[in-house]
Amino acid sequence: MIKHTLVLILLFLPPTQAKDVGQWGSNISPELRAWFNEVYNSSGFKCCEAADGYPVEYQMRSDNHYWVRFKGEWYEVPDEAVVRQYGNPTGGGVVWFAEVFGGRAVRCFVPVLEY
Questions:
Q1: What's the CA gap between 115 and 94, in Å, rounded?
Q2: Does the pLDDT at position 78 exceed 50?
Q3: Rounded to two decimals, what is the model's pTM?
């Protein structure tokens, strides 16, 4: 129950303030920037833009959930946060976070397309 409540809170929170720390390099293409601006999670909430998305290592674990590694910590990805309908031109996993109760939770996650 607590997990579902946190997911609902997460999905209705506004995105955190964008902070570009150069995670995509200094010369991001207009096409890639447009892709970042068009990604929405399955609940219809905008993931945000390039400055908010981070490249991440990820795994599909035995619980059938994605987990992403960011700054040495692993975060479970809620099913509602997994985005597949926009493709992934980055070549790796991308995650967007929201701040929840002073912590970090996954708002959106785009895996590399698996065929």
A1: 18
A2: yes
A3: 0.76
